[in-house]
Automatic annotation (TrEMBL):
Recorded metabolic or biological pathway in which this protein acts: Amino-acid biosynthesis; L-methionine biosynthesis via de novo pathway; L-homoserine from L-aspartate: step 3/3; Amino-acid biosynthesis; L-threonine biosynthesis; L-threonine from L-aspartate: step 3/5
Catalytic activity as recorded in UniProt: L-homoserine + NADP(+) = L-aspartate 4-semialdehyde + NADPH + H(+)
Name of the featured protein: Homoserine dehydrogenase
Membrane-spanning ranges: none
Record-listed E.C. numbers: 1.1.1.3
Pfam family of the protein (one): Homoserine_dh
Protein's UniProt keywords contain Magnesium: no
UniProt keyword list: Amino-acid biosynthesis, Methionine biosynthesis, NADP, Oxidoreductase, Threonine biosynthesis
Amino acid sequence: MSVESVQLSWSRPISAPPRVDRVALFVLGKGTVASSLLAQIGEHKARIVERDGLSLEIAGVCDRKSALFVPRPGGLDLADWRGALGAAPDADPRERRPFLDGLTRLGSRVSVLVDCTAADRMETLYEQALLRGIHVVTANKKPFAGSLPSFRRLQTTARRCRRALRYETTVGASLPVIETLKDLVRTGDRVELIEGSFSGTLGYLSNELLRGVPLSTAVGVARDRGYLEPRPQDDLSGVDVARKAVILAREIGLNLGLEDVRLTPFVPAELLAVSSPESFFEVLPTYDAEVAATVARAQAEGKVLRYLARIDPGQRRIDVGPVAVDVHHPAARLRGAESFVAFTTERYRDPLVVQGAGAGGALTAAGVLADILAIARKV
Ligand SMILES: NC(=O)C1=CN([C@@H]2O[C@H](COP(=O)(O)OP(=O)(O)OC[C@H]3O[C@@H](n4cnc5c(N)ncnc54)[C@H](O)[C@@H]3O)[C@@H](O)[C@H]2O)C=CC1
Ligand SMILES: N[C@@H](CC=O)C(=O)O
């Protein structure tokens, strides 16, 4: 056999189409982030096939009431996924194993469970997925800021099963916060301090309050722009920021939980006692004057009110709360729904800063999509 013929038998004929690998996704949620994700996949699908050789197929989508599973190549028709989900049968949100089994039976090269909810106790579902060889991408902070043993078990399961568990969007939406921190840790840097403004919503509200916009008006706009948590009290209590702080603290090996965070809410505590989101929006205007007065007091002293988090590994301490900062403070310069996270480390004496818009459906969905593509490209 000549050298030439050996080479030809190895290589793909020039005219052969490039290989396309199927990536099957099961999406939890149909809200701000999930619907943007499905729209982005619909819009960019052909380009992703062409550029990356990956065909993203929605095998299923569900909300807290019903679930739709489409066990055919190509997956769900994204033109009318809402209508199809609306007509889908009821499904118990506590029992998703049949869908996970269905996902594995599809035989795609990569299968991913994508959590775009803020549901509690998702750790069990993630474990069930990982144990079946399904990767997990999630925007849901709760599994990473909740019970420490469950969080550590989840990490161990992912490692043992050699499956990815990616949650970049849980801090700073699509800003590269978690991967940056992971890289610092992986390369042996020592993180001495993490601080910043971790909430796009509270950054936006602070800016609007400074412009004299009433709190209730600004919260309404933040909701319409898709910045708010499903339960807005989670934003205004600071709990959402506390969750992000715990996630970052755990990345640097601190065994801390929400109960360890020294938390001062963004708004008066009585407002947070209101339980349903509907009644919360009703009573919100009665707090406009009090909150405006707090902002005005800081302004009168030449300061800017910001909602900051500070993780001090040396002291094993996390502080989250409003701070009246000097106009030269990096947080004073934030615009719109911008967030920033500053890492001071042994190598970065001047902090490494990640900054940009930190909330919103399209941005977060892009971060979720980037996580999915990062997995599919590696496998
Ligand atoms: N909106 C944003 O800017 C960002 C959101 N996130 C996170 O993304 C997640 C989703 O946020 P949004 O889309 O804004 O909320 P959303 O309230 O618009 O959507 C949540 C969806 O989850 C569904 N859901 C609730 N429990 C479920 C269950 N057990 N099974 C299936 N579906 C269930 C609801 O039906 C709803 O469709 C949250 O965890 C949030 O913290 C993270 C970064 C930024
Ligand atoms: N409500 C959150 C959304 C992202 O996590 C925020 O505003 O930061």
